[in-house]
What we know:
By secondary structure, the chain is mainly beta. Helix content is 6%, strand content 35%.
Amino acid sequence: MEATDEVFVSYHQMLVAEPGAYPPEGLTGGLAASAPGAAVIRTGIHTGNVDVTVRLTTAAPDAQDGWEEEAEVDLITSTGEMWLAGLMNGPADLPNLTPHGPGRYRMRVHARGRGINYDGVATKPCEFYLLVVWPVELVPEVVASRLPEPLPRSQSDEIRDWARRYGHVYSERGRPASGPGFPGGGPVR
């Protein structure tokens, strides 16, 4: 399957992500980088339209001629839905990039024209991208296994349950304490 659309980008980025995901932070790499649930594609223009073609395949593609840059990254999805969007926009009018459901995929990003209007604003596309995505089979050694039984409860879990049950004030790291003597505290129960 193949589809093409103009994508509006900002801050030099397009995002491939699960619905509601935020752009991954601190990723290194040139053209593309990824983390579980999201990938970033870096554009030459700061803001404007780029031309993107998405090609979904069932296996790794052959080399493509006519592109200036190429990068390959993992797409790891727990939902089976990863969509392409400009960083500050909704999804482009392109298909779900992970149509085979949750799992691991590879995405090869091809780019042409990233240096033409670097850091500029483009109303007409001067950059072109081809995203080729295919599913990757996981070998048994890398498939995460489930624990055979739940982890044992800790003493902290028992204390929290007791405090909730009897309405006592308790505090956890990162959660402000409440009750008499604390800002917004209420009466003693």
